[in-house]
Design a protein that fits this description.
heterotrimer; A alpha/beta (171); B mainly alpha (148); C alpha+beta (662); A: 171 residues; alpha/beta; 7-stranded mixed β-sheet; 5 helices; B: 148 residues; mainly alpha; 6 helices
Chain lengths: 171, 148, 662
């Protein structure tokens, strides 16, 4: 029995298998956000359907649900009614939609057909999306009343998940 | 407005603003070190996706204002985490990825040296055929005939 | 009446049964040295191959008949795609590709059983047992977690078709099969290696069988890796051919250890040393293919090739752990029984350079492996996500590649065995001319990057050594093959250096009718065209290319809109010449405005050609070595003997180098 071979082999095997095992069950495409617990990046973006701009700093003092989406994204269609309903049910929370990589005409059409319970802005050039570290759509951020990001949710958000997040942020 | 956004997150630009071909080249360099978050491993310089194109435009505008590579990288790391850097920084656990290959080279070189010493100290091999083998003599003749 | 899906399942179960039985029988027959056992093991090996072949034919039949009751067909089939796409969709998606792996494995096992048994009767049972054990795992995978023959009821009327990226280019037809021929082929030398370890000895016929099967797999793997790079270059639109993507790395790792093993085996054959090390490399090559298949299919790695996670990943990991543990144990137990029969006389000799070659190749393998799994390690240790991308790999690998290129020149220049200082000088100094010549040539043509210049020097040196050796050799086909491979490698490395550091790239926006220049070419955007096919709509940008006022070609990069996908997928168009390529891909396209990426890449086609040269050299080396005919006749047709070293006076040096040089 060659001890050198055995020990070297055992170490390599154990290390490799352990590392690979740790990878299973994790989604390699998911990126953790370093913004959690930090101040939400500031922005002022043009509102859809009017010439006005909306400044996110204006919403300080209320929790904010910030939803990044686009009209070409299928999960966003499913998520939209959930956001609308919850917005109507919780007027003490500010909802704001941010659309990027899209065209204003299409967004207006979408909102007209599906209704909108909260303001929507357009992020030309996707710079705000970059500042928020958005990797895909939809992504939802929940800010507390002080403007700190407390939740980042990738993918469409369901009724239960949204309620749970809001409960947490109100504490 | 974007300027205000960036200024709030970073200190003032620490280098001179760039323009023209120098700007193009530097954009390519810096963008090659940043990872496109929606692609599989491509840099924002190489990726055709809209997200990457937007990020590259951002890099370009920051370079035009005179931000350094470190400042630009810091800006993106704040949003995306260290994931967005394609070349690991030499700090903390990440330093290992740089150190391990060098360590392996040194260990390997040492091993080769040891093996060479051991193998040159070994005795001469016994011939597998005895020197009197008649076939061997015949082969020697034939080879001499074939190669002369 | 049995349904297609059920028939497929039945055949796979049959394969599972046959391979499991054969595995047990093989090992038992080996231990008991039973001839009857060997005969039955061989029959089971053939049966396994036949069953896999039948199962694959059933699947192809189902695909071509659009039988959507079979789960895999429902998954990737479509009535809208061309016939050739349907045929190749056999390997386009996860479950089908595992079935394809089973097919290639079955055919390889049958062929190896048929063609290598003679002279290896004592080792064959163990080898067959090992092969069928692997076959049994893959049958299990196909029968269980990766079953493509599940029944879908009610059967849908149509399917989504295979991934559009895979329909974009005809190279997709060739890359996976060749990759599997290379990858799966590593199982065969693995079986021989295990047999050698179990028997505690490795004789000349076994060495030959092991080396030949290793070389054959190596050839296919080389071509496959090159095709992967070429496909990425022609299809993906960023103008490069290697991104150090985890799955790309997975294909490279076994190639590196196999190359090391091929060299180490030469020292083993010539000097009777490094037996254990050679076997370790052979076993590692197979282990790395299992790791590679895990990396590709488990969904653990962020890659262009990724599949979503499923039960397949953990299953392969269990197999990987099992073969790792088995191999380590076997090596630890048996490596000391493989006695060294000889010695290495001097470090400055060809044997010495082979050791350095092995060191560099193993270091290369280690570095690529560490870089690829490192993000997983960091995330496991402190939860943070980080990336190890192209800039890292390029920094690490370039010095190693250059060092290997130097060895490619120095190694064959040095003779085997102890040599005097004079002889060393005489061997190593003349090729400096070639090195300097290529360097100067490169600088004249504009090479300025320091690494490129060093590569040119090392490449010129290696080319001179290789060409001189090729001119000298007349009889040993194996050596000719080896030097042709070296020629290919030298050309490939130089071409890689030049194509990466001397390319010119521009992004422009052109109005209709507007021109711009890049390199020696003038390109004019002349208009767009829409083309509709059943499965996609293409917007084509027509670009007229001229050089010195003369029309060269019209390039037509496209944006393909597939029904199923949101963002269109761009396909570049490439004008390839011996000197370099003009590469155009579309960034944005409107009726009279095109955003284009223009790239001129020098010498990139030389990379593809050089790898084909490597493959050709490999095939030449595989042709059976013929003994000097008169000797064979004289000795009554016995196999060639190893002639031990005789004093120089009796045998001229040229002859000494030729005999058994490989």
């Amino acid at each position: 029995m060659n001890r050198f071979v055995l020990s070297t082999g055992a170490v390599i095997t154990a290390a490799l298998v352990a590392v690979l095992m740790s990878g299973l069950g994790r989604d390699p495409k998911h990126i953790d956000s370093p913004l959690l617990g930090n101040a939400a990046p500031h922005f002022v973006l043009k509102s859809i359907g009017s010439a006005e701009s909306i400044d996110i700093a204006k919403f300080r003092g209320k929790p904010v649900v910030l939803n990044f989406w686009a009209t070409w994204c299928a999960p966003c269609w499913e998520e939209h009614p959930v956001l609308n309903e919850t917005a109507r049910a919780h007027p003490e929370v500010q909802f704001l939609g941010v659309v990027f990589q899209d065209e204003e005409a299409k967004i207006q059409d979408f909102l007209r057909r599906r209704g909108s319970a909260y303001p929507t802005v357009i992020d030309e050039g996707g710079r705000t999306a970059i500042a928020y570290g958005v990797g895909g759509v939809p992504e939802t951020f929940i800010l507390d009343a002080n403007g700190t990001i407390v939740v980042k949710h990738d993918g469409p958000v369901s009724q239960q998940q949204l309620q749970a997040y809001l409960a947490e942020v109100r504490k | 407005m974007i300027l205000a956004l960036i200024l709030l997150l970073l200190d003032a630009p620490q280098s001179t603003p760039l323009q023209g071909p120098a700007l193009d080249q530097r954009t390519q360099e810096v963008a090659s070190g940043l990872r496109c978050p929606v692609c599989q491993g491509l840099s924002i310089a190489d990726s055709p996706s809209e997200m990457a194109v937007n990020m590259k435009a951002e890099v370009r505008s920051m370079l035009a204002k005179g931000y350094t590579r470190e400042q630009i990288e810091t800006y993106f790391i704040r949003s995306y985490g260290e994931f967005v850097l394609l070349e690991p920084k030499f700090e903390g656990v990440n330093a290992l990825v740089w150190i391990l290959p060098v360590a392996a080279l040194l260990l390997g070189a040492f091993a080769v040296w040891r093996v060479l010493r051991k193998l040159s100290a070994a005795p001469q091999p016994k011939p597998r055929v005895s020197a009197d083998d008649p076939d061997l003599a015949r082969v020697r003749e034939l080879v001499k005939g074939a190669t002369s | 009446m049995i349904t297609t899906a059920a028939l497929g399942r039945l055949l796979i179960l049959g394969a599972l049964l046959v391979s499991t039985a054969g595995a047990f029988l093989g090992f038992a027959s080996g231990a008991k040295r039973s001839e009857e056992g060997l005969r039955w093991s061989r029959r089971l090996a053939y049966a396994f191959g036949a069953l896999m072949l039948l199962a694959t034919l059933v699947m192809e039949h189902a695909l071509l008949r659009h039988d959507f009751s079979v789960s895999y067909v429902a998954h990737v089939g479509s009535r809208d795609v061309p016939v050739w796409v349907t045929i190749v969709s056999l390997w386009s998606s996860l479950e089908g590709s595992i079935l394809f792996w089973g097919l290639v494995l079955g055919l390889y096992i049958a062929a190896a059983t048929r063609f290598t048994s003679r002279g290896n009767e004592e080792a064959m049972p163990y080898a067959i047992g090992t092969w069928l054990a692997c076959g049994s795992f893959f049958s299990f995978l196909i029968a269980g977690p990766a079953n493509p023959f599940l029944t879908i009821s009610p059967a849908p009327l149509d399917g989504p078709g295979p991934n559009p990226l895979l329909q974009n280019h005809v190279l997709m037809v060739a890359h996976p099969p060749l990759l599997y021929l290379g990858y799966v082929g590593m199982t065969i030398p693995f079986g021989f290696g295990v047999a050698a370890l179990l028997r505690g000895k490795i004789g000349p016929t076994l060495v030959r069988a092991m080396r030949n099967s290793l070389l054959l797999s190596w050839i296919f793997l080389s071509i496959a890796i090159m095709l992967g790079g070429w496909w990425a270059y022609e299809v993906l639109g960023w103008g490069g051919y290697w991104a150090w993507d985890p799955v790309e790395n997975a294909s490279l790792l076994p190639w590196l250890t196999a190359t090391a093993a091929l060299h180490s085996a030469m020292v083993m054959q010539r000097r009777g040393v490094l037996k254990g090390w050679t076997l370790t490399l052979v076993l590692s090559s197979f282990l790395l293919t299992v790791l590679g298949t895990f990396m590709t299919r488990s969904g653990v790695f962020n890659s262009v090739h990724s599949f979503t996670q499923s039960a397949i990943g953990p299953t392969i990991l269990v197999f990987l752990a099992a073969v790792l543990i088995g191999s380590v144990t076997l090596l630890a137990l048996r490596i000391d029984t493989l006695e060294s029969e000889g010695r290495i006389d001097a470090p400055v000799s060809r044997e010495g350079t082979f050791l350095l070659n092995n060191l560099l190749l193993v270091l290369f393998t280690f570095t690529v492996l560490v870089g690829t799994v490192f993000p997983l390690v960091v995330e496991a240790v402190n939860g943070k996500q980080m990336s190890v991308g192209r800039p890292y790999f390029d920094s690490m690998v370039v010095p190693m590649g250059v060092a290997l290129l130097f060895l490619l020149g120095i190694g064959p220049a040095l003779p085997w065995g102890r040599t005097s200082h004079n002889e060393i000088r005489r061997a190593l100094l003349p090729p400096l001319i070639g090195g300097i010549a290529l360097l100067i040539l490169g600088v004249i043509f504009g090479a300025r990057n320091p690494w490129t210049i060093v590569t040119l020097f090392a490449g010129g040196y290696a080319l001179q050594v290789t060409l001189v050796q090729l001119a000298k050799l007349r009889h040993s086909r194996r050596s000719v093959g080896a030097y042709v491979i070296h020629l290919g490698v030298a050309i490939a490395v130089v071409a890689i250096a030049i194509s990466s550091t001397m390319r010119t790239q521009r992004e422009v926006v052109l109005q209709q009718g507007q021109s711009t220049t890049i390199g020696v070419y003038t390109v004019t955007f002349t208009g767009t065209e829409e083309r509709s096919e059943p499965h996609r709509t293409s917007s084509i940008a027509r670009i007229a290319v001229t050089k010195d006022g003369r029309t060269v070609t019209t390039l037509e990069p496209r944006m393909n809109q597939y029904e199923m996908m949101r963002e269109p997928i761009g396909t570049p168009d490439v004008h390839s010449t011996i000197g370099g390529d003009l590469y155009i891909s579309i960034a944005s396209l409107e009726a009279n405005r095109a955003g284009l990426l223009l790239i001129v890449t020098p010498l990139v086609s030389w990379i593809w050609i050089a790898v084909l040269l490597m493959a050709a050299g490999g095939f030449i080396a595989l042709v059976p070595r013929t003994v000097i005919p008169s000797v064979a006749r004289d000795l009554g047709g016995r196999r060639a003997m190893h002639v031990p070293r005789t004093p120089p006076a009796q045998v001229p040096r040229a002859a000494r180098d030729d005999m058994g040089v490989a």
